[in-house]
Design brief:
32% strand; 205 residues; 4-stranded antiparallel beta sheet; mainly beta; single chain; 12 strands
């Protein structure tokens, strides 16, 4: 289960970024899918259990809640995903296709249980499904990772400078973390080998 914590230094006014989150999001977050757009277009889809809410951290927004909580199964995008993704999303990794993360180039790897699938939130696509669900162990990226990352992912943190050879995602599974890339020119998706979360120095990719 991934998690988000609100901080008092969340924006220039010092207001906690996630203070406006209603229950159950204010106590548990499983995953976040971020549309990589700035300003008023910034949107984060936050998942908690079988619920999803659309949120922004843009400091000029009148309210950070862009769309109220609803069942994932009722959402206009995620409700069109096959089971179990239409009721539960555990983690999301946003691929950087040559630095393109909007429009037709948008692609996110969603994980639910021991399954992975590739999806898009681009509204002009006929379907949000880019690649059908498959076991994580069979995925072209995650299947090449060592245990336990090739069967279960709890959370993903992506570095801000995240295109080409600089692309780096921190993958968490149980008490371990490792750094990976989805860059198609990389000889391996593994950037930094697995290590214990609590005993690790800052991972350098």
């Amino acid at each position: 289960m991934g998690c988000l914590a609100s901080t008092a230094a969340g924006d220039p006014a010092g207001v906690p970024v996630f203070a406006a989150l209603p229950a159950p999001f204010n106590s548990r977050v499983d995953a976040v899918l971020s549309r990589m757009q700035g300003g008023s277009n910034e949107t984060h889809f936050i998942f908690s259990g079988d619920q999803v809410i659309e949120y922004t951290t843009w400091s000029y927004a009148k309210t950070p809640v862009k769309a109220p909580p609803m069942p994932i199964a009722s959402h206009s995008i995620f409700g069109r995903l096959p089971a179990p993704f239409n009721t539960k999303i555990d983690a999301v990794l946003s691929k950087q296709n040559g630095g393109e993360q909007s429009g037709s180039g948008e692609c996110h790897i969603a994980l639910s249980g021991d399954l992975a699938m590739e999806i898009t939130t681009w509204t002009y696509d006929k379907t949000p499904v880019k690649k059908a669900p498959m076991p994580i162990a069979n995925h072209s990226i995650f299947g090449r990772l060592p245990m336990p990352f090739n069967t279960k992912v709890d959370a993903v943190l992506s570095k801000a400078s995240n295109a080409g050879s600089a692309e780096c995602h921190y993958i968490f599974s149980g008490d371990q973390v490792m750094a990976v890339t989805t860059w198609s020119h990389a000889p391996s998706p593994l950037k930094v080998a697995p290590t214990k979360i609590d005993g690790a120095a800052l991972l350098q990719s």
